[in-house]
Write a structure and sequence with these properties.
heterodimer, A: 502 residues, alpha+beta, five-stranded mixed β-sheet, 23% strand, globular, B: 332 residues, mainly alpha, 16 helices, 0% strand, disordered C terminus
Chain lengths: 502, 332
């Protein structure tokens, strides 16, 4: 007896379903002029996604709606939620999830993966250098005052060795796909990048809702993320990896990303601590347990730099641990990600990352990035102020889609207000041309329509770097919108990196 | 384990156990009211007094509202401003679980979050209006499910024993409170004497509330107040008897006290032993009659003291600091 699928039978079945059920998922789907992740033109998928698009086309619309409801219920029941800052009293919301996956061919992914490792390697070298000998400044590749005025630069850690030479243990690099199909870097997140728990939860929901399609699509797994992270953290410990006690440091249950903090602690099998659970004694970090103090060797912290140690930074912070930086300076604890990484993912430093790749690695950057105008530079500022309707203006110090003006979408009054803000405090702003980034078929409530997507892959670095296949695809659920942030009405999708045909 | 997490584990099951016994007390009273041995107002007042909510209820709903069973139930079940209501307790259990999400199993989390969603998203309220017994039964089943999942899906390590301590101490206190409803409802006449139909009916509902009816009649041939009191206080093999709870709480307390942690937990152990000793000494007829209310008050207060001592011995965040400072003194 034969077990498994006969490809010919499956193909016939797929075709017959397609013909029989008149209202299938992608009927009448028309991509916009932007690059579409699944379709080359109306009703014609890209050659590398065609196989999987056909599998998805089997799904009848009514059935799809039903599964969309099941997915929403699964997230709510699982408590896979975040809180929105603008909502007082910590209202929990689920991250809207779209069931149509974003699909990437194995070949495209390998190019992205290579570029990401190169970029993160250069950024790690930059951080070691900038808090050490500052060769890149002495070589004149980056203006010294840009670094010294940067809000993410932490002079207190200058001269402190990075344990095992790693500063960016976890990076989340936001990518966009341009009209020509090329992935470009929009920004680096090197402090406390979040969102990876949604990648894993999205995957587990997709596997439950579309087991057959998922199996036949042959997708790279993401399940080993937490194990990889724990291994990387142990590898940079001040003691032997097997004796290492890791703790995940969270600001607490009211933090918007609390779900993710507990999720990672649970999957790594380590303790989830708040600042008040820790104390420093004899320059070592201890956790208060019911059986007395216990040493902590590696802190995977999800608390911002300035709240980490009230002795050194914000003295009224209750989220951190007094004396933590002293323990760190003594080499008795590894903090991941390292303190001071903000200088490397600053929006005003971003234009210099390609230069870092050349300077430290002596290679050409394999990932492109978006042209950026620094409003602190006279010539750039003049250009920005004259071309506001075509540009996206961003506050250097903001994240999460806040403090952003999208020129083509802004009203005259908004543009005028932006002009005044930029003129008053130019060094706080950068501007970039609007990138017509890619769309992906997305359920709009009644039909499938093109919506813009970005992608945040996660790169873990211990002894070496590893990239989680795929990453978080965020989608702007509103028609025509460019804003994919969860805090501003964005949703997410599962990201399928296809295995090569065997 | 982390002291803060231990405290959350302890409270997770205390909250759930409170839901269970509050629902149990309401259930007893619903049948008391039907039997009409006492006035409706008296029976609901007894419940409010037993769970310590009488003054707050009078302030919030007015003293006369005690005659309105619906008002009392709304207050005890749904009032989110009443920190001891079922809704508050379920919310608090769920918050405790969310805080120790990495310590409990996925199954436990799904169950407690499912219970909270049921309570807060309309389904439970509909059930409450349309099928009151079904609503209460579902609550007790969900608590039972969580007890089972706790036993069956996590490591039986310190976290488990702190949960078990919370469960057993709360349960011992609640059994004492449910026994004490008699005092508030029917007055302090001696249960050893010939009993009124009202008393017989009351003791039967107490047994049913504590799911002890079958067990009781396996051990005791005929119903009397004295026999019920002795059984619920002292029967070692009855899972809801005060003695059973304290014996097993002592086991869990031993488990959370590491040999290396020295004197930590001594004071708690001493309090627990004193309570157990009292129950041994008072096993005769002395504890019934007029003395019953006094003895039950002793048990209830003793358990409250023990819980405070556990906080001081295990959960207090300043403890580790003081210990480290004391240890650091050796270096000088």
């Amino acid at each position: 007896m034969r077990i498994g699928w006969d490809p010919a039978v499956v193909a016939a079945h797929v075709v017959s379903l397609w013909v029989r059920t008149l209202v299938t998922l992608f009927d009448a789907y028309v991509p916009t002029s932007a690059y579409d992740e699944l379709f080359a033109s109306a009703s014609q998928a890209h050659p590398e996604t065609e196989r999987v698009v056909q599998l998805l086309s089997q799904v009848e619309k009514g059935d799809f709606k039903q599964r969309q409801r099941l997915a929403d219920a699964a997230f709510r029941r699982g408590g896979v939620t975040f809180s929105v800052y603008s909502d007082r009293r910590g209202v929990e919301k689920t991250f809207p999830f779209d069931l149509i996956p974003r699909i990437i061919s194995g070949r495209d992914w390998r190019a992205v993966e290579k570029g990401l490792i190169q970029r993160v390697t250069a950024l790690n070298r930059f951080l070691e250098d900038i808090y050490g000998d500052q060769e890149i400044l002495r070589a004149g590749k980056i203006p010294r005052e840009l670094i010294e005025q940067c809000s993410g630069y932490v002079p207190q850690v200058r001269g402190l060795a990075k344990p095992h030479g790693v500063a960016v243990h976890v990076a989340g690099v936001d990518l966009l796909r341009r009209d020509d199909g090329e992935f470009v870097v929009l920004e680096d997140n090197l402090r406390v990048p979040s969102g990876v728990s949604y990648v894993l939860e999205n995957r587990s929901v997709m596997k439950r809702l579309f087991p057959n399609i998922f199996q036949m699509a042959r997708v790279e797994g993401v399940d080993d993320y937490a194990m990889r992270l724990a291994d990387a953290l142990r590898s940079v410990s001040p003691v032997e990896p097997c004796e290492t006690n890791i703790a995940v440091l969270t600001p607490g249950v009211f933090n918007s990303a609390y779900f993710e903090h507990s999720f990672l602690a649970r999957l790594m099998g380590c303790q989830l601590v708040e600042g008040r659970d820790l104390f420093v004694h004899d320059d070592c970090v201890w956790v208060k347990t019911t059986r007395g103090p216990e040493r902590v060797h590696v802190i995977y912290r999800r608390v911002d730099d300035l709240f980490l140690d009230p002795d050194v930074f914000h003295e009224d912070s209750v989220l951190g641990v007094a004396g933590l930086m002293r323990a760190y300076a003594s080499g008795n604890v590894t903090i991941a990600n390292a303190v001071g990484n903000g200088v490397a993912d600053d929006k005003a430093v971003y234009p210099y990352v390609p230069e870092m790749v050349r300077f430290y690695l002596d290679e050409e950057p394999s990932l492109q990035q978006v042209k950026t105008y620094l409003c602190s530079e006279e010539a750039d500022r003049r250009y920005v102020l004259e071309h506001l309707p075509e540009l996206v203006v961003k506050e250097v110090a903001s994240a999460g889609g806040y403090g952003m003006t999208v020129g083509p979408m802004a009203s005259k009054a908004e543009l005028q207000a932006t002009k005044e803000r930029v003129s008053a405090d130019p060094s706080n702003y950068i501007a970039q041309p609007v990138v017509e980034f890619s769309t992906c078929p997305t359920w709009s409530g009644r039909k499938v329509a093109p919506r813009r997507v970005d992608m945040r892959p996660y790169i873990i670095t211990g002894k070496s770097s590893w990239v989680l296949p795929g990453g978080l695809t965020r989608v702007a659920l509103t028609e025509g919108s460019y804003v994919v942030n969860s805090s501003q009405g964005g949703g997410s999708k599962d990201t399928w990196v296809l295995k090569d045909p065997s | 384990m982390i002291s803060r997490v231990a405290e959350n584990c302890f409270w997770l099951h205390r909250c759930l156990e409170r839901v269970d016994s509050l629902v149990a007390m309401i259930n007893v009273n619903l049948s008391e009211v039907l039997d009409q041995h006492t006035s409706v107002a008296d029976s609901w007042r007894a419940v409010l007094v037993a769970c310590g909510e009488a003054p707050q209820f009078a302030e919030r709903c007015g003293a006369e509202a005690v005659a309105d069973g619906e008002a009392v139930q709304d207050y005890l079940v749904w009032d989110i401003d009443n920190v001891a209501s079922v809704l508050s307790m379920v919310t608090s259990a769920r918050e405790n679980a969310r805080t120790v999400r990495e310590t409990i199993s996925l199954e436990m989390w799904l169950a407690v979050n499912g219970l909270w969603l049921w309570m807060t998203q309309g389904a439970a309220k509909r059930r409450y209006r349309q099928d009151r017994p079904g609503f209460y039964a579902r609550l007790r089943q969900d608590v039972e499910l969580l007890r089972g999942l706790t036993h069956g899906t996590i490591l039986h390590d310190e976290a488990f024993h702190f949960m078990r301590l919370g469960l057993l101490l709360e349960r011992a206190g609640q059994t004492a409170r449910i026994l004490d409803v008699k005092h508030h409802l029917l007055g302090p006449n001696n249960p050893a004497e010939a009993e009124s139909p009202a008393e017989t009916s009351h003791w039967l509902s107490v047994l049913r509330t504590l799911t002890a009816t079958e067990s009781f009649f396996k051990r005791v041939p005929s119903l009397s107040g004295l026999a019920v009191v002795q059984f619920l206080l002292l029967e070692r093999q009855l899972p809801r008897s005060v003695r059973h709870c304290l014996v097993h709480a002592a086991e869990s307390l031993e488990q959370v006290r590491a040999p290396s942690s020295g004197r930590r937990g001594n004071a708690s152990s001493e309090l627990l032993e004193a309570l157990r000793g009292r129950l041994r000494d008072e096993s005769g007829t002395q504890i019934v009659g007029a003395n019953l209310h006094r003895e039950l008050t002793y048990v209830i207060d003793g358990i409250a003291d023990l819980c405070n001592q556990l906080t001081a011995d295990f959960f207090d965040p300043t403890l580790a600091l003081r210990e480290a400072d004391a240890a650091g003194g050796d270096n000088q």
